[in-house]
Amino acid sequence: MSDPLLSVDELRVRFRSLGALRALVRGVRDPYIDAVCGVSFQLRAGETLGLVGESGSGKSTVARAIMGLTPSQAGSVRFDGRELRGLPTRELRRLRADMAMMFQDPVGSLSPRLTVRALITEPLRIHGRTEVNLDEEADRLLDMVGLTPEFGGRFPHQLSGGQARRVGVARALALNPRLIIADEPTAGLDVSVQGEVLNLLAHLQRKLGLAILIITHNLNVVRHVTDRTAIMYLGRFVEQGATETIFRAPHHPYTAALLSANPEPDPDAAHARVELHGEVPSLMNRPPGCEFHPRCPYARELCAHTPPRVTEAGGEHRYTCHFPLNAHDMAAA
Length: 333
What we know:
By secondary structure, the chain is an alpha/beta fold. It is 33% helix and 21% strand.
């Protein structure tokens, strides 16, 4: 097995919740919230990993921390064997040429003042690639994502959602990156267009050997394109492993609940039907013990005061639950 291109180990991200003066007045000693709590995973060239969870689970924060767009307070982020955390800005900028991020809003993430041609060649100008003919490169990138050269003269407001997403893919490919981080790549798109975008990403991955990290709440996207899946809840991974395994035999009740709510469940999977109680707790008031226990229909007394440990379930399958779902539970559901 090849060495990982991206290795994230015990990554932690905190945000200040109160200003210094207000914290002093209120007597708050630790005026921060933990948005990402010790997340670890690896991603190899040619692989796709999906980060899944409800809004506010920390998925996008992980992505931004990897890119250095959001500061992290602890842990390690290694790209091609090199630690990214703590790198000087100039060195990090050079390494970013090998990493690209596609943002959630396909139209809103594109400057309305620039033409498509200018947008997709902007990374080349920023990184000083003066040896490249920008017009020729724009046409090449447009062709790679299935758009004709005439799209180069359009502005973002003249594009459909699917076309704007293709432009975003072309822009991400401008510097020939080795890693693409796609934040909700199908958000706001019709189902048929979603399939086209996902098929395009899969085709480009096979052609270019890309590593892809997909941030999404859409389980159909995960099942369609990812090799491995990590489920996030309140900034932690509660389960991760091969996508096929996660869909066939989820061990964590939260994973099973997400699969239960999936509009197109796998007909061959015997998922336990899990209905969540209440709302996602505030990051400022995390529950004690297992943080999922207030919403879990299987919670017992142990869950209310003792955090569960990470348990190996074979292969790369891991979960954090005192009372995991098993084959007997799912067959009886």
